[in-house]
Specification:
Blueprint (H helix, E strand, L loop, with lengths): L1 H29 L14 H24 L10 H22 L18 H31 L5 H9 L8 H34 L12 H23 L7 H36 L2 H12 L3 H21 L1 H4 L2 H27 L19 E4 L5 H27 L7 H25 L22 H5 L4 E4 L5 H24 L9
Helix pairs in contact: 1-16, 2-3, 2-6, 2-7, 2-12, 3-4, 3-16, 4-5, 4-6, 6-7, 7-8, 7-12, 8-10, 8-12, 9-10, 9-12, 10-12, 13-14
């Protein structure tokens, strides 16, 4: 059965990669005409995948610095894997940049026609330094194993001998020197990696015409999200594929540790997202509100609610934090995979909603014909906000009841806490009565007062933050990714997975020595 599943997985991967690379070839020959990018939306899914993979790379590298720079020895068995993942993800991100270029054959001109006042130009130089640091660290960590591997006569030995670059010293002293050099490179790499993905965020943050991007917090959001995706990726890989040479207890403990780190980073990332949304809605600035409404209720609403929030955040957090699943390395590893996929939704929501609206009113009708299809959707059913509000109130009241019951149980039999137990009991009873009252009210039964009527009927919300959300009943998106954009993205992702599998099986990424 396992063999059949393996063959099926390889068949799907190779077929999807082949079809995707054929779409890439069509894109190379026919140019951007095969896309639905237009004068309103110049960036699409390729840019979203670019920042996604750059984030995976930077996050994986920064986690490796916890080992080689800050001395967190517990994570040492995954050090090489983290650096290799960072390198492969970086290659994938740069491939998506090539896809998005109108003339990809001219990429080299950025190194000739320099403008060091350009954020993009600075970012390119960060990439060059970052690639050099990754390759140097990986080589130093694998050097002695490459020398040992190159002592055979088969093709793998010849490849290892070639990658050893003529080095022959396998002594412990040379290994200690390698680790010291890796530490120095890691210290240099920390600001470089922050510049790589923080700089990617800065590419968006300096665009004044897009209020959702324009702000000093945007690069920080990118860095935190990168750490989340990198930690989640390593959690998944270690739980299901890597670490086979480690004792099972050590491997399981490491997976659970990575899972807790990932959960903490994800919680902080959600806090930043809440800050961004709450400030935007409260400010009620039309340009901000329109983008947020497009994200929440537009044609791609499901990306936010299902991919990013439910699949990529709520369920993984529950799997990691609940005792039943949080002690299982498999469940924690699966939660890591869900977060890795959910971050794709984050990247799509950064790029597409902010560009799906014209910068100036009437800009979309200034031309006789839009060069790409548009899509209109209802913002939401009129009663949706009412029930969401009621659900929030019920959740709050149920939380009060739960905490009250927990408090009473923990204080049972403790004479010194009679007052606290009585207070918890009174609060619990009051919350239960409030919940019953609200349910009766919402089901249409007669009550003695009209209080707590959260139907929002008849209220004038025009000049409130909620009014900004309710302003229009339709949302227009001026971008729908073309089939070629999706297929070529699948091709690049499939090629990236193949590169990772080949590299993982050839290179000495795991060692009993720990470095």
């Amino acid at each position: 059965m396992k063999r059949i599943l393996t063959i099926a997985a390889w068949s799907v991967l190779l077929a999807a990669t082949g079809v995707g690379l054929a779409a890439v070839a069509i894109r190379v020959v026919q140019g951007l005409g095969v896309t639905n990018l237009n004068y309103i939306v110049p960036w699409g899914v390729w840019v979203a995948f670019y920042i996604y993979f750059i984030g995976l790379s930077a996050g994986s590298f920064l986690l490796s610095t916890m080992i080689y720079v800050f001395g967190f020895k517990k994570l040492e068995p995954i050090g090489r894997l983290a650096l290799f993942s960072a390198l492969i993800a970086l290659i994938a991100g740069l491939n998506f940049v090539l896809l998005d270029l109108g003339h990809m054959e001219r990429f080299w001109t950025v190194f000739v026609n320099r403008n060091m006042w350009s954020v993009l130009e600075i970012e390119i130089h960060f990439y060059v330094l970052y690639i050099a640091v990754l390759l140097a660290e990986l080589w130093l960590l694998m050097r002695r194993d490459l020398i040992r591997c190159g002592q055979g006569s088969d093709w793998k030995a010849k490849l290892c001998k070639l990658m050893a670059l003529g080095s022959r010293d396998t002594s412990e002293e040379s290994g200690a020197k390698d680790i010291r050099r890796v530490r120095i490179l890691g210290m240099l790499g920390v600001p470089i990696a922050i510049g790589v993905h923080g700089g990617t965020g800065a590419l968006f943050a300096v665009v004044k015409a897009r209020p959702m991007w324009y702000g000093p917090l945007f690069p920080i959001i990118f860095i935190v999200s990168a750490l989340v995706s990198g930690a989640a990726l390593l959690t998944f890989l270690l739980a299901f594929f890597a670490g086979r040479g480690m004792p099972k207890e050590q491997r399981d403990d490491l997976v659970l540790t990575l899972g807790k780190i990932t959960a903490g980073l994800l919680a902080f990332d959600l806090l930043l997202m809440w800050s961004e949304f709450s400030v935007g809605f409260y400010g009620n600035i039309p340009e901000d509100i329109e983008v947020l409404r497009m994200m929440l209720f537009g044609p791609f609403w499901w990306v936010f609610w299902f991919v990013q929030i439910i699949f990529g955040a709520i369920i993984p957090l529950l799997l990691i934090l609940l005792p039943a699943s949080g002690k299982s390395p498999r469940w924690v590893g699966f939660a890591g995979l869900m977060i890795v996929i959910g971050i794709i939704g984050v990247r799509l929501n950064i790029v597409i909603p902010a560009l799906s609206l014209p910068v100036l009113p009437g800009f979309d009708t200034a031309y006789t014909m839009l060069p790409a299809p548009s899509q209109t959707t209802l913002a939401y059913p009129p009663e949706l906000l009412t029930w969401l509000t009621r659900l929030a109130v019920v959740a709050a009241v149920v939380s009060i009841v739960a905490f009250g019951v927990i408090g009473m149980r923990r204080l049972r039999g403790q004479p010194g806490h009679v007052f606290e137990r009585a207070l918890a009991g009174v609060g619990t009873v009051a919350a239960v009565l409030l919940l019953v009252f609200l349910i009766i009210r919402w089901t249409g039964q007669t009550t003695t007062t009209a209080a707590f009527n959260l139907g929002l009927t008849g209220l004038d919300l025009t000049h409130t933050p909620i009014g900004g959300i309710l302003g229009r009943t339709e949302l227009h998106s001026f971008y729908i990714p073309s089939p070629n954009e999706w297929l070529s993205s699948i091709g690049v992702i499939g090629l990236t997975i193949l590169m990772f599998i080949i590299g993982y099986n050839i290179l000495p990424l795991e060692t009993k020595e720990g470095h």
